[in-house]
Design goal:
Double Stranded RNA Binding Domain; alpha+beta; hpI Integrase, Chain A; DNA polymerase, domain 1; 367 residues; 44% helix; 4-stranded antiparallel sheet; 3 domains
Protein backbone atom coordinates (compact mmCIF):
# COMPACT_ATOMS: atom_id res chain seq x y z
CA UNK A 1 0.00 0.00 0.00
CA UNK A 2 1.40 3.34 -1.06
CA UNK A 3 1.87 5.75 1.87
CA UNK A 4 1.04 9.44 1.70
CA UNK A 5 4.14 11.55 1.19
CA UNK A 6 4.28 15.27 1.90
CA UNK A 7 6.87 17.07 -0.19
CA UNK A 8 7.93 20.52 1.02
CA UNK A 9 8.39 23.01 -1.77
CA UNK A 10 10.78 25.96 -1.76
CA UNK A 11 7.82 28.24 -1.06
CA UNK A 12 6.83 28.89 2.56
CA UNK A 13 3.67 27.05 3.70
CA UNK A 14 3.33 25.25 0.35
CA UNK A 15 3.46 21.44 0.21
CA UNK A 16 2.83 18.84 -2.43
CA UNK A 17 1.55 15.31 -2.10
CA UNK A 18 2.73 12.40 -4.16
CA UNK A 19 -0.63 12.64 -5.94
CA UNK A 20 0.54 15.89 -7.48
CA UNK A 21 -1.92 18.12 -5.60
CA UNK A 22 -0.71 21.18 -3.70
CA UNK A 23 -1.60 21.95 -0.06
CA UNK A 24 -1.12 24.85 2.34
CA UNK A 25 0.29 24.21 5.81
CA UNK A 26 -1.48 26.73 8.06
CA UNK A 27 -2.84 27.16 11.55
CA UNK A 28 -6.61 26.69 11.95
CA UNK A 29 -8.12 27.29 15.38
CA UNK A 30 -4.69 26.94 16.97
CA UNK A 31 -3.76 23.69 15.22
CA UNK A 32 -1.39 23.17 12.32
CA UNK A 33 -3.19 21.52 9.45
CA UNK A 34 -3.03 20.96 5.70
CA UNK A 35 -5.60 22.70 3.47
CA UNK A 36 -6.02 21.47 -0.08
CA UNK A 37 -5.51 24.13 -2.76
CA UNK A 38 -7.32 21.87 -5.23
CA UNK A 39 -4.78 22.19 -8.01
CA UNK A 40 -1.69 20.44 -9.35
CA UNK A 41 -0.41 23.60 -11.07
CA UNK A 42 2.27 25.50 -9.17
CA UNK A 43 1.32 29.03 -10.27
CA UNK A 44 -2.33 28.46 -9.41
CA UNK A 45 -1.34 26.96 -6.05
CA UNK A 46 0.84 29.98 -5.25
CA UNK A 47 -2.01 32.39 -6.02
CA UNK A 48 -4.45 30.41 -3.87
CA UNK A 49 -1.91 30.23 -1.07
CA UNK A 50 -1.48 34.02 -1.06
CA UNK A 51 -5.27 34.41 -0.88
CA UNK A 52 -5.47 31.94 2.00
CA UNK A 53 -2.71 33.70 3.92
CA UNK A 54 -4.44 37.05 3.42
CA UNK A 55 -7.60 35.57 4.90
CA UNK A 56 -5.74 34.27 7.93
CA UNK A 57 -3.98 37.60 8.51
CA UNK A 58 -7.25 39.53 8.20
CA UNK A 59 -8.81 37.35 10.89
CA UNK A 60 -11.24 35.57 8.58
CA UNK A 61 -12.09 32.01 9.41
CA UNK A 62 -10.68 29.13 7.41
CA UNK A 63 -13.40 26.57 6.82
CA UNK A 64 -13.02 23.26 8.61
CA UNK A 65 -14.60 19.94 7.75
CA UNK A 66 -17.82 20.70 9.64
CA UNK A 67 -18.14 24.10 7.97
CA UNK A 68 -17.98 22.46 4.57
CA UNK A 69 -21.06 20.44 5.43
CA UNK A 70 -23.13 23.61 5.71
CA UNK A 71 -25.73 24.15 3.03
CA UNK A 72 -27.59 27.17 1.73
CA UNK A 73 -30.62 25.80 3.55
CA UNK A 74 -28.72 25.82 6.86
CA UNK A 75 -27.71 29.42 6.32
CA UNK A 76 -31.23 30.57 5.44
CA UNK A 77 -32.66 28.73 8.43
CA UNK A 78 -30.19 30.57 10.65
CA UNK A 79 -31.25 33.94 9.24
CA UNK A 80 -34.95 33.06 9.52
CA UNK A 81 -34.49 32.22 13.19
CA UNK A 82 -32.84 35.62 13.65
CA UNK A 83 -35.89 37.29 12.14
CA UNK A 84 -38.28 35.33 14.35
CA UNK A 85 -36.35 36.24 17.50
CA UNK A 86 -35.87 39.92 16.59
CA UNK A 87 -37.43 42.36 19.05
CA UNK A 88 -36.97 45.26 16.63
CA UNK A 89 -39.20 43.92 13.85
CA UNK A 90 -42.98 44.15 13.80
CA UNK A 91 -45.04 41.10 12.78
CA UNK A 92 -45.72 42.53 9.32
CA UNK A 93 -42.01 43.22 8.75
CA UNK A 94 -41.12 39.73 9.93
CA UNK A 95 -43.62 38.24 7.50
CA UNK A 96 -42.11 40.28 4.65
CA UNK A 97 -38.55 39.22 5.46
CA UNK A 98 -39.58 35.58 5.72
CA UNK A 99 -41.15 35.92 2.27
CA UNK A 100 -37.83 37.25 0.96
CA UNK A 101 -35.96 34.18 2.21
CA UNK A 102 -38.77 32.10 0.75
CA UNK A 103 -37.90 33.37 -2.74
CA UNK A 104 -34.44 31.86 -2.43
CA UNK A 105 -35.98 28.54 -1.39
CA UNK A 106 -38.50 28.67 -4.24
CA UNK A 107 -36.28 29.80 -7.11
CA UNK A 108 -32.86 28.33 -6.39
CA UNK A 109 -31.81 25.85 -9.07
CA UNK A 110 -32.01 22.93 -6.65
CA UNK A 111 -33.22 22.08 -3.15
CA UNK A 112 -31.35 24.52 -0.90
CA UNK A 113 -30.88 21.73 1.67
CA UNK A 114 -28.68 19.98 -0.92
CA UNK A 115 -26.68 23.05 -1.92
CA UNK A 116 -23.26 23.15 -0.19
CA UNK A 117 -22.17 26.73 0.40
CA UNK A 118 -18.71 26.18 -1.04
CA UNK A 119 -20.21 24.81 -4.26
CA UNK A 120 -22.30 27.89 -5.09
CA UNK A 121 -21.16 29.35 -8.40
CA UNK A 122 -21.67 32.69 -10.12
CA UNK A 123 -23.98 30.95 -12.59
CA UNK A 124 -26.24 29.79 -9.76
CA UNK A 125 -26.53 33.36 -8.45
CA UNK A 126 -27.18 34.87 -11.88
CA UNK A 127 -29.86 32.28 -12.63
CA UNK A 128 -31.61 33.03 -9.35
CA UNK A 129 -31.73 36.79 -9.82
CA UNK A 130 -32.92 36.42 -13.40
CA UNK A 131 -35.98 34.72 -11.92
CA UNK A 132 -36.41 37.68 -9.54
CA UNK A 133 -36.64 40.16 -12.42
CA UNK A 134 -40.43 39.92 -12.50
CA UNK A 135 -40.72 41.29 -8.97
CA UNK A 136 -40.94 44.93 -7.92
CA UNK A 137 -37.80 47.00 -7.45
CA UNK A 138 -38.30 46.93 -3.69
CA UNK A 139 -38.64 43.13 -3.46
CA UNK A 140 -35.72 42.65 -5.84
CA UNK A 141 -33.48 44.96 -3.79
CA UNK A 142 -34.61 43.44 -0.48
CA UNK A 143 -33.82 39.96 -1.80
CA UNK A 144 -30.45 41.18 -3.02
CA UNK A 145 -29.67 42.62 0.43
CA UNK A 146 -30.71 39.34 2.06
CA UNK A 147 -28.49 37.29 -0.23
CA UNK A 148 -25.57 39.64 0.33
CA UNK A 149 -25.94 39.12 4.08
CA UNK A 150 -25.90 35.36 3.51
CA UNK A 151 -22.84 35.70 1.29
CA UNK A 152 -21.01 37.90 3.81
CA UNK A 153 -21.43 35.19 6.41
CA UNK A 154 -20.43 32.53 3.89
CA UNK A 155 -17.28 34.54 3.17
CA UNK A 156 -16.44 34.86 6.88
CA UNK A 157 -16.70 31.09 7.18
CA UNK A 158 -14.18 30.72 4.38
CA UNK A 159 -16.68 29.02 2.08
CA UNK A 160 -17.27 31.68 -0.58
CA UNK A 161 -15.85 30.85 -3.96
CA UNK A 162 -15.98 34.42 -5.28
CA UNK A 163 -16.61 38.01 -4.29
CA UNK A 164 -20.26 38.96 -4.59
CA UNK A 165 -20.41 41.80 -7.11
CA UNK A 166 -22.55 40.10 -9.74
CA UNK A 167 -25.90 41.83 -9.27
CA UNK A 168 -26.61 45.53 -8.96
CA UNK A 169 -29.43 47.16 -7.03
CA UNK A 170 -32.28 48.52 -9.08
CA UNK A 171 -32.99 52.23 -9.08
CA UNK A 172 -36.64 52.55 -8.00
CA UNK A 173 -38.83 54.24 -10.56
CA UNK A 174 -40.21 57.66 -9.62
CA UNK A 175 -43.44 57.16 -7.78
CA UNK A 176 -46.40 58.90 -9.38
CA UNK A 177 -49.11 59.65 -6.84
CA UNK A 178 -52.49 60.04 -8.51
CA UNK A 179 -55.14 61.52 -6.25
CA UNK A 180 -58.69 62.74 -6.96
CA UNK A 181 -59.72 66.37 -6.98
CA UNK A 182 -61.43 67.80 -3.91
CA UNK A 183 -64.79 67.56 -5.70
CA UNK A 184 -64.22 63.91 -6.63
CA UNK A 185 -63.11 63.16 -3.08
CA UNK A 186 -66.33 64.55 -1.61
CA UNK A 187 -68.48 62.67 -4.15
CA UNK A 188 -66.57 59.50 -3.28
CA UNK A 189 -67.27 60.05 0.42
CA UNK A 190 -70.94 60.56 -0.42
CA UNK A 191 -71.09 57.08 -1.96
CA UNK A 192 -69.25 55.63 1.05
CA UNK A 193 -71.78 57.18 3.42
CA UNK A 194 -74.75 55.18 2.23
CA UNK A 195 -76.47 52.35 4.16
CA UNK A 196 -76.11 51.10 7.76
CA UNK A 197 -72.32 51.45 8.15
CA UNK A 198 -72.04 54.64 6.10
CA UNK A 199 -71.30 56.95 9.02
CA UNK A 200 -68.56 54.68 10.39
CA UNK A 201 -66.96 54.37 6.94
CA UNK A 202 -66.93 58.11 6.31
CA UNK A 203 -65.51 58.78 9.79
CA UNK A 204 -62.81 56.15 9.20
CA UNK A 205 -61.78 57.64 5.85
CA UNK A 206 -61.86 61.27 6.98
CA UNK A 207 -59.87 60.41 10.12
CA UNK A 208 -57.08 58.82 8.05
CA UNK A 209 -57.20 61.62 5.47
CA UNK A 210 -57.04 64.34 8.17
CA UNK A 211 -54.25 62.69 10.22
CA UNK A 212 -52.09 60.75 7.74
CA UNK A 213 -51.83 57.92 10.26
CA UNK A 214 -50.87 54.40 9.25
CA UNK A 215 -54.15 52.51 9.23
CA UNK A 216 -53.49 49.28 11.14
CA UNK A 217 -50.45 50.11 13.25
CA UNK A 218 -51.51 53.62 14.38
CA UNK A 219 -55.05 54.82 13.58
CA UNK A 220 -56.68 51.56 14.69
CA UNK A 221 -55.28 52.05 18.23
CA UNK A 222 -56.36 55.66 18.87
CA UNK A 223 -58.69 55.92 21.88
CA UNK A 224 -60.70 58.78 23.36
CA UNK A 225 -58.06 58.99 26.07
CA UNK A 226 -55.45 59.90 23.46
CA UNK A 227 -57.29 63.15 22.67
CA UNK A 228 -56.05 66.12 24.69
CA UNK A 229 -58.66 68.84 24.22
CA UNK A 230 -56.70 71.40 26.26
CA UNK A 231 -53.44 71.00 24.35
CA UNK A 232 -55.36 70.24 21.14
CA UNK A 233 -53.23 67.19 20.35
CA UNK A 234 -53.60 63.47 19.67
CA UNK A 235 -51.13 61.08 21.30
CA UNK A 236 -50.03 58.40 18.83
CA UNK A 237 -48.56 55.35 20.53
CA UNK A 238 -49.56 52.61 18.12
CA UNK A 239 -49.81 48.90 18.82
CA UNK A 240 -49.51 48.21 22.59
CA UNK A 241 -46.87 45.55 21.92
CA UNK A 242 -44.82 46.99 19.07
CA UNK A 243 -45.49 50.73 19.23
CA UNK A 244 -45.31 52.95 16.16
CA UNK A 245 -43.05 52.22 13.20
CA UNK A 246 -40.21 54.37 14.54
CA UNK A 247 -40.45 52.94 18.06
CA UNK A 248 -38.69 49.74 16.96
CA UNK A 249 -36.46 48.54 19.76
CA UNK A 250 -37.36 51.52 21.95
CA UNK A 251 -40.14 50.01 24.04
CA UNK A 252 -40.31 47.32 26.67
CA UNK A 253 -43.00 44.67 27.19
CA UNK A 254 -45.33 47.34 28.62
CA UNK A 255 -44.68 49.66 25.66
CA UNK A 256 -42.94 52.80 26.82
CA UNK A 257 -41.93 53.83 23.32
CA UNK A 258 -41.48 57.46 22.38
CA UNK A 259 -44.58 57.74 20.15
CA UNK A 260 -45.47 61.23 18.86
CA UNK A 261 -48.17 63.89 18.99
CA UNK A 262 -50.28 65.31 16.18
CA UNK A 263 -51.99 68.73 16.41
CA UNK A 264 -55.77 68.88 16.29
CA UNK A 265 -56.17 70.82 13.07
CA UNK A 266 -59.48 72.74 12.90
CA UNK A 267 -61.12 70.26 10.48
CA UNK A 268 -59.75 67.32 12.44
CA UNK A 269 -61.05 68.73 15.73
CA UNK A 270 -64.46 69.29 14.17
CA UNK A 271 -64.47 65.72 12.81
CA UNK A 272 -63.63 64.18 16.19
CA UNK A 273 -66.29 66.26 17.91
CA UNK A 274 -68.87 65.00 15.40
CA UNK A 275 -67.65 61.43 15.96
CA UNK A 276 -68.27 61.91 19.70
CA UNK A 277 -71.95 62.70 19.17
CA UNK A 278 -74.06 59.75 20.26
CA UNK A 279 -70.99 58.12 21.82
CA UNK A 280 -70.63 60.28 24.91
CA UNK A 281 -70.95 57.15 27.07
CA UNK A 282 -67.69 55.71 25.75
CA UNK A 283 -64.67 55.86 28.05
CA UNK A 284 -60.99 56.82 27.61
CA UNK A 285 -60.02 53.28 26.57
CA UNK A 286 -62.66 52.98 23.84
CA UNK A 287 -61.39 53.33 20.29
CA UNK A 288 -62.39 56.14 17.95
CA UNK A 289 -62.74 54.03 14.82
CA UNK A 290 -65.68 51.64 14.87
CA UNK A 291 -64.67 49.46 11.89
CA UNK A 292 -61.46 47.65 10.94
CA UNK A 293 -61.35 48.56 7.26
CA UNK A 294 -63.86 49.75 4.63
CA UNK A 295 -61.66 48.52 1.77
CA UNK A 296 -64.43 46.75 -0.16
CA UNK A 297 -66.76 49.75 0.03
CA UNK A 298 -63.89 52.07 -0.97
CA UNK A 299 -63.28 50.02 -4.12
CA UNK A 300 -66.98 49.91 -4.97
CA UNK A 301 -67.32 53.69 -4.58
CA UNK A 302 -64.22 54.34 -6.71
CA UNK A 303 -65.50 52.08 -9.48
CA UNK A 304 -68.94 53.72 -9.40
CA UNK A 305 -67.36 57.17 -9.68
CA UNK A 306 -64.96 56.06 -12.41
CA UNK A 307 -61.78 57.11 -10.60
CA UNK A 308 -58.63 55.24 -9.62
CA UNK A 309 -59.28 52.98 -6.63
CA UNK A 310 -58.19 54.68 -3.44
CA UNK A 311 -56.44 52.60 -0.80
CA UNK A 312 -56.06 53.35 2.88
CA UNK A 313 -52.42 54.25 2.20
CA UNK A 314 -53.62 56.72 -0.43
CA UNK A 315 -55.34 58.57 2.42
CA UNK A 316 -51.90 59.05 3.96
CA UNK A 317 -50.80 60.46 0.59
CA UNK A 318 -53.90 62.71 0.60
CA UNK A 319 -52.97 64.13 4.02
CA UNK A 320 -49.36 64.70 2.96
CA UNK A 321 -50.30 66.32 -0.34
CA UNK A 322 -52.81 68.62 1.35
CA UNK A 323 -50.21 69.70 3.91
CA UNK A 324 -47.60 70.40 1.23
CA UNK A 325 -50.12 72.34 -0.85
CA UNK A 326 -50.96 74.34 2.30
CA UNK A 327 -47.30 75.29 2.70
CA UNK A 328 -46.43 73.11 5.72
CA UNK A 329 -42.68 72.87 6.28
CA UNK A 330 -41.34 69.47 5.19
CA UNK A 331 -39.50 68.92 8.48
CA UNK A 332 -42.66 69.58 10.51
CA UNK A 333 -44.72 67.38 8.19
CA UNK A 334 -42.22 64.52 8.53
CA UNK A 335 -42.58 64.78 12.31
CA UNK A 336 -46.37 64.67 12.06
CA UNK A 337 -46.19 61.62 9.78
CA UNK A 338 -43.72 59.80 12.02
CA UNK A 339 -40.97 59.64 9.37
CA UNK A 340 -37.49 58.94 10.70
CA UNK A 341 -35.62 60.70 7.87
CA UNK A 342 -36.77 64.25 8.73
CA UNK A 343 -38.33 64.81 5.31
CA UNK A 344 -35.78 63.34 2.91
CA UNK A 345 -38.29 60.85 1.50
CA UNK A 346 -40.99 63.52 1.23
CA UNK A 347 -38.79 65.69 -0.98
CA UNK A 348 -38.12 62.74 -3.30
CA UNK A 349 -41.68 61.43 -3.64
CA UNK A 350 -43.89 64.50 -3.28
CA UNK A 351 -42.12 66.62 -5.87
CA UNK A 352 -45.29 66.95 -7.88
CA UNK A 353 -48.54 68.77 -7.18
CA UNK A 354 -52.05 67.94 -8.21
CA UNK A 355 -53.27 69.61 -11.41
CA UNK A 356 -56.02 71.21 -9.35
CA UNK A 357 -53.53 72.93 -7.02
CA UNK A 358 -51.26 73.83 -9.94
CA UNK A 359 -54.14 75.71 -11.59
CA UNK A 360 -54.94 77.49 -8.32
CA UNK A 361 -51.33 78.63 -8.03
CA UNK A 362 -51.25 79.69 -11.69
CA UNK A 363 -54.25 81.93 -11.12
CA UNK A 364 -52.24 83.88 -8.54
CA UNK A 365 -49.33 84.59 -10.91
CA UNK A 366 -49.15 88.18 -12.12
CA UNK A 367 -46.71 89.75 -14.61
Amino acid sequence: MKTTEWIKTRHNYLYKRNSGKYYARISVEGKQTFKSLKTDRLEVAKAKLRELIDRVESGSKIANRNDRKLTLGDMIKDFEEGVELSADLKPKSKKFKMAIYGYISDYWHKDIADQPLDKITKTHVRQFFLKMNDYSDNRFNQTLDAFRSIWDKTTKLGLAGFEFDLVKRRSPKEKIIKLPTDEQFEKWLGLLGKDKWGRARVEYVRFLAYTGLRADSEAAWITWGDINWEKKTIAITGDPLTGTKNDRGKQDSRHTGIGRELPLFPQLEKLIQSMRQGREHEGPKDKLLKIASPKKAMNTASDALGIKRLTRHDLRHWFTTKCIESGVDVGVLAKWRGDADKGEMLLKIYNQVRDEHSQQMAAQVSF
